[in-house]
Structures are given as structure tokens and as C-alpha cells.
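Deliverable D2.4 — example input (C-alpha cells):
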């Protein structure tokens, strides 16, 4: 009996660990990239043809809430806070997401569900299998929620709840105002864009199959190149389908061309030695123009020091002219794919700095570099070099500002509970000793 209970307890807490770590990671990578999560939600709405009915502020709010909800559920399950309620909420969440991912796997309307943002890309079937495991774990927790030992007492669990909600909402707000703290996309700082577009020698490329539709004596048939018939057949149509993807480079859809499509500047920009500024705006019609003065100042700085400055957008000529009318922009604009621009930087507009084709700086329009005609060459400034803020440093900050305080709180709480237990034990021992003494006195009197 005891062995069975011990095995059940181990199973419950393994499921607890799997769910909590998965939810914490999934929620955090969504929360620090709310715009990326919003783009994915808009993809879902496009599939069901509802995107025109849902305004952007609702999808953005939903992306922040979704990331925050997953992160909080993971933390609360880990600490065993409101065990019954949280177990039911996790089960409800997985009961909704598992059928959804099954539909995605079968219909395949979107290649990546975005469950782990850009940090980990899973196929739709991999996502479904992952959710089946999480659903099974959620059922176990829901059946035996009280077998999860608490890491924090009921008296102090409000501190973990409040601090977690504040932390994750602050992380999302900070990422919206500036840029995501962690950049998992192929255009991250330190990335060589041109190198990211290369296909390694010997790598298998995508394979295509062309089918020809021909007609003879009123009968139509499909043929391939291998069994193409003689000239007595009349050509009607052809279709080409991709039968295997092969190697796809991390960056495969980046281009820079003139607005009339007559000239491609991609290679000349990426191959240029020295510094190049790129102002990124997927849609100038919706770009934030509150800091256009700082952008113009950076352009003037580039003019005085001989640095190229290009505006990249997917807007029409009318959109470009509208931006020029309201900002007085004099820098040239070129066309780039909309999805690519959204991937390059999570800001509209945002600023990119290249050196020899390598990304060495990215800024939101709210946090632009302070460059003016009085500033010296980029080589003499902090902006002209790769930042020292490494991934290890960013993780250390999270440890310092979130995980360490929770560990200290947990240690203090457990110490307090242990002290309370000792006092209760001592008190119960005193009562027991008093009861025993009185009993002995009665026995002595009866003699």
C-alpha cells in the first residue's frame, strides 16, 4: 500500500515538473515577444477568415494575456499554489489546445503553430504529440492534486502570485516598448545576413515535379517528363509541385529592390564594407511617427559621415509618400517582403545597423541611438561595436530579479514553517508531559 502511494506520488510530481517547466518556457518566450505572438494569432484568424473583424489591439492584448497565462500557470503548478484550481485550469487549457493542434496537424493551414515562439520550431504533428503528453499529465494532476507538496505556505503564496504577474506583464511591456530581451530569429545581433542566405555545398535542394496535361482525340491525360508522349498529343496545361523541401537556409526571403522593381540592391547592400543603416517599417501607414525627428537626425548624421541610410518597407507608393508628407523624410525607400520585415525587427519603425553585412545593432523607435552632427565616427561610439550584453548576462539578470527573490522567499517561508512546526511539537510535548504527570499523580493517590 505504501509502495503504491509512493509510486503515485512520484508520477504526480513528474507530471507536475513536466507541465510547469513546459508552461514556464512556452509562456515566457511568448511574453517577451508579444508582437511575434500577435502575428501568429493573426495567421490563425486569416485561416478562418476572421482577421478583418478583429482589430489589432485585441490580438495584441490576447498575445500578452496568452503568454502571461501560460507562464503563471507553470509557476503556480511548480509551487503548488491553489493546487485544485490550477490543475483544473491546466486541464482545461490542454483540452482546448490538443484538438486545435490536431486540426493543425491534419489540415496543415500553418506550418508552425508558434507554441514556443521562435525559440523552438516544431512541426504540427510534433506539437500535437507534445500536447497529448501534456494532456495526459494534466489529467494525472487533476485526479491527484493534493499529492503535490507545497513549496510555499498558503499564508505567503499571495507574494508569489503577485510578483509573478507583475514580472511577466513588465517583461511584455518592456519588450513592446523596446525590443524582445532574447532574439531567436535569424536576424539577431551578430548574424551575418548574407552568410545566412547561403546554401552549403552538397546540400540537397528542394525537388519539384512538373506534370503536363495533354489531349488527344478528345481524351486528356497527365504525363511527366519520364513518360512524355509523341507530338500527336496537344499541350493543354502544366503544373509544378514541390515534392520535397530539401535544405532551406535560415534567411531565404530577404531582398532589397527599388519601388518599381527595376533594380535589386540586395547584394550591393550586404556586401558593402563598413556601416549601413536600415530603417525597417513593414507598413508605413501604421508606423509610429512620434520619434521621426530622431530618425531624421540619424539620417543627417549618416549624410555628414558618409554612411548609407535606406528605408525598407512593403508599403505602396502612396504609403511612402504619406510618411514623407508627415515626417519630411528625405531618405530613399526600397521594397522588401512584409513578413521578412516583421521578422527582422519587432518595431514599426525599427532601426538596424550593419557592419560588413553583419547585424551589430537593433533599436526600437522608442530607444533610438543618440547620434547627431556633433557625434564622431561610429567606430568611436558604443553603437559601432557589437554590444557586450550577452545571452549569459541577460539570463543572469532574470536570475537576479525573479528567480533569486523567489528562492529566498521559499527558503524563508520553509524556515518559518519549520520553526512553527517545532513550536507546535514542543507545545504538544508539554501537554503530553502534563497529562502524563497528572495521570501518575492519580495512580499514586489511588494506591
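Example output (designed residues):
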Amino acid at each position: 500500500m505504501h509502495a503504491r502511494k509512493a509510486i503515485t506520488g512520484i508520477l504526480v510530481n513528474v507530471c507536475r515538473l513536466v507541465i510547469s517547466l513546459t508552461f514556464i518556457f512556452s509562456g515566457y518566450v511568448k511574453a517577451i515577444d508579444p508582437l511575434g505572438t500577435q502575428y501568429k494569432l493573426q495567421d490563425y484568424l486569416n485561416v478562418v477568415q476572421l482577421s478583418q473583424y478583429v482589430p489589432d489591439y485585441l490580438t495584441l492584448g490576447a498575445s500578452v494575456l496568452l503568454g502571461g497565462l501560460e507562464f503563471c500557470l507553470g509557476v503556480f503548478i511548480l509551487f503548488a499554489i491553489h493546487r485544485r484550481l490550477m490543475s483544473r485550469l491546466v486541464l482545461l487549457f490542454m483540452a482546448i489546445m490538443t484538438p486545435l493542434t490536431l486540426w493543425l496537424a491534419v489540415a496543415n493551414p500553418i506550418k508552425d503553430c508558434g507554441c514556443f515562439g521562435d525559440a523552438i520550431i516544431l512541426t504540427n504533428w510534433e506539437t500535437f504529440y507534445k500536447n497529448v503528453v501534456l494532456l495526459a499529465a494534466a489529467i494525472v494532476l487533476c485526479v491527484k492534486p493534493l499529492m503535490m507538496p507545497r513549496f510555499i505556505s498558503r499564508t505567503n503564496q499571495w507574494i508569489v502570485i503577485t510578483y509573478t504577474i507583475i514580472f511577466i506583464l513588465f517583461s511584455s511591456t518592456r519588450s513592446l516598448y523596446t525590443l524582445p530581451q532574447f532574439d531567436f530569429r535569424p536576424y539577431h545581433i551578430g548574424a551575418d545576413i548574407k552568410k545566412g542566405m547561403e546554401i552549403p555545398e552538397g546540400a540537397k535542394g528542394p525537388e519539384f515535379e512538373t506534370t503536363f496535361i495533354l489531349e488527344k482525340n478528345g481524351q486528356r491525360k497527365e504525363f511527366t517528363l519520364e513518360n512524355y508522349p509523341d507530338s500527336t498529343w496537344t499541350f493543354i496545361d502544366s503544373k509544378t509541385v514541390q515534392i520535397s523541401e530539401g535544405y532551406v537556409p535560415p534567411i531565404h526571403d530577404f531582398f532589397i529592390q527599388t519601388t518599381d522593381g527595376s533594380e535589386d540592391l540586395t547584394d550591393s547592400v550586404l556586401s558593402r564594407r563598413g556601416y549601413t543603416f536600415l530603417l525597417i517599417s513593414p507598413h508605413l501607414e501604421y508606423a509610429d511617427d512620434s520619434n521621426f525627428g530622431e530618425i531624421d537626425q540619424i539620417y543627417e548624421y549618416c549624410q555628414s559621415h558618409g554612411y548609407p541610410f535606406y528605408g525598407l518597407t512593403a508599403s505602396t507608393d502612396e504609403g511612402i509618400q504619406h510618411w514623407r508628407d508627415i515626417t519630411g523624410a528625405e531618405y530613399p525607400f526600397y521594397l522588401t517582403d512584409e513578413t521578412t520585415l516583421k521578422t527582422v525587427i519587432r518595431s514599426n519603425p525599427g532601426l538596424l545597423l550593419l557592419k560588413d553585412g553583419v547585424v551589430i545593432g537593433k533599436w526600437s523607435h522608442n530607444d533610438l541611438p543618440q547620434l547627431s552632427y556633433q557625434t564622431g565616427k561610429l567606430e568611436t561610439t558604443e553603437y559601432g561595436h557589437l554590444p557586450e550584453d550577452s545571452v549569459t548576462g541577460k539570463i543572469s539578470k532574470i536570475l537576479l530579479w525573479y528567480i533569486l527573490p523567489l528562492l529566498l522567499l521559499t527558503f524563508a517561508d520553509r524556515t518559518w514553517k519549520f520553526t512553527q512546526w517545532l513550536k507546535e511539537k514542543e507545545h504538544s510535548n508539554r501537554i503530553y508531559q502534563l497529562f502524563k504527570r497528572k495521570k501518575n499523580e492519580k495512580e499514586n493517590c489511588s494506591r
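The mean pLDDT is 88.
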